[in-house]
Amino acid sequence: MWLLSPYLTRKWPRVAASTLLVTVATCLVITAATLLQSNVATTSFLEQRAQHLVEVTGTVSEAELADMLPDETIDIIPAAVAYLRYPLLFGRSAMLPVYGITEAAAETLLTAASTSLAADTLVPEFDGLYVPARFLQARGTELGAELAEQYLGKEHIFTILGTLDSAFDFALASRDTITNLSIQEPALLIHSSETNAESLEAMLHEKLSGRRNVRVVGPSYFADLGRERIREMTMWEILCTLVTGVVLMGVLLVHTAKQQLEIAVEQAVARLYRSGVQTSLPRPLMVGIVSGVFGWLTGVLLALAGYLIISRLLGASRGMVVTVPWKWICITGSYILVPIACQILIWIGTLRIDAATFLAQTPASLLPKPEAVQTDNRPSQSIGL
Amino acid sequence: MGRAAQAFSATMSLSPCSDNHRQVQQENITRCDEIYAWVYPLYSRNEGEDQLATYSIQGLITSEGTSIGGDFRSGDIILFCGGTLPQRYHLLQTLMGNEPLPQGVVRYNEKDLNDLDPKRRAQLQNTDFAFLAGNDLLLDYLTIVENCLVSEQQINGITIERTKILLRRLGFQHPEAIYPEKLPLPKRKLVALARCLRKEPKVIFAYELFSGLLADEAKELWDDIVIALADRDVMLMATSAEPIETLAERAIIFPL
């Protein structure tokens, strides 16, 4: 075991290279997971409206719903719903709902969304949009600017009138503005300050179970969508982790193979002095552990630093929500095992070198100096009579 | 006439150190087609000879049909030359007791190695024998002091100091600061020998002691070995493709 200390001291570039490889792999996977998760996190964030509003679309009237829902504290807001493209990373995008409402319904919706914006401050007969500040960042636009949106290949121009600071993200427009769009649908937004959205959704599902062409969009609907997205993201992350792990294993094996001479000599010395070949294992094993643990820790620290930078950059410039991928930080912990496995594999591979051959005629590939090759056909001037 | 026989004849014309040599029991030697031996007694021993280790080979026929024999003791350097590389390797393994004897007797301190049970033989090999590999087996990330201690699980100040003293005697000044990669091949082999000597063996079996060395380097190593072993009761049995000139001039030929 005392061999570890001089090895680390005098062969530190070699150990540092292994450590660096683990660091890069760990950092790469965690950063990739951070970016992949930011798409999911941002989409989920936009869908938080389902925790406050349940949307009912289809052939059901406001009066019918009012009869079905006995609680008087339940608000039913008639609206026309369209969507604005919310750009994400990797060419993906999410949808931000834009509710077209009448002036009369505006106050109810703004109260339900806990906005600081008062209904009477809305531009009368407004034909533009009120959007969350995050949306402005995502689209790279600003107040007063015109926003172009494609609906069935037809471009619609909106004017951004103001920002909404609310409990959940949505855009607001006049009902006429939305109903004039080529893609929109009428919806009834159900809100209750006393009953939570899950209960409301369940209640509506129960009451409308026999009705065809009626769709209830609430927390469980988005939860299903969220699970699907997480499944897809997990698949990509597993792929990324596996590919990175395999590449790391390959590169580390090549790198560790350079130490085969040392391992072979250590094994030979252990055999020669009858201390058992297994006594030559702790040194490479400890080198693997040191490389793995330090490489992983450094990789995690770098990735967390990267997370801070990414969250600032993406949050400020792209309106993205960035979260720490704790699960993938834990999974990359398996990379600690890669340099250890490489050391053990090389150590086992070195056992295959015939000891007698090694002690006597060191294989040419392992020789430190070419002139030390043992042959029976040495030049006549070498030794002799 | 084969190469071995030529070498034998050539050496017979030289004058051995008649004062020091012991008479070799020629009647025990049957024949030798390939391998031949040179014996270099470092010094005569008239006192306390009974305390020295002895090694006796009688009528040993190797797997290749070579028959060898003779009596050796501490202070002798025996160089087995000629034959092929595998022949010499098998011979050394046989002498170490690692391979069964097809015929003949190998006695160490009057004990027949063939008669010893494997456990006892292994114990004997562990305490009294050392093997010096053809490859010097030095690790370039260790100093030569550490290389001498590499087989030890734990080291302390005393063992380190003793090793430094040993290496200084062999001509390495400041051995704690010398790395093998800076040493020429003969000096690397000398460090490997020092690692053997640290175990204080009675017999050192050296495989292809001069392999890979040029003539000058081999002589240099030989001189260093003579110095290293001069004050030690240790016997060195080595193989080599050919003997070296220094040895040929001074050694007693072991008639095979």
Question: What topology emerges from the helices and strands here?
Answer:
The complex is a heterodimer of chains A (385) and B (256).
Chain A: H1 4-10, H2 12-46, E1 54-58, H3 62-68, E2 74-87, E3 93-101, H4 103-112, E4 129-132, H5 133-139, E5 146-151, E6 154-164, E7 171-174, H6 175-179, E8 185-192, H7 197-207, E9 214-217, H8 219-257, H9 260-272, H10 282-318, H11 326-331, H12 337-351, H13 355-360
Parallel strand pairs in A: 3-7, 4-6
Antiparallel strand pairs in A: 1-8, 1-9, 2-3, 2-8, 4-7, 5-6
Chain B: H1 3-12, E1 35-41, E2 54-61, E3 67-73, E4 76-82, H2 85-96, E5 105-108, E6 111-112, H3 118-128, E7 129-132, H4 144-148, H5 157-169, H6 185-198, E8 203-206, H7 215-229, E9 235-240, H8 245-250, E10 252-254
Parallel strand pairs in B: 4-9, 7-8, 8-9
Antiparallel strand pairs in B: 1-4, 1-10, 2-3, 2-5, 5-6
Which labels suit this protein?
heterodimer; A: 385 residues; 13 helices; 9 strands; 17% strand; elongated; B: 256 residues; alpha/beta; four-stranded antiparallel sheet; 34% helix; disordered N terminus
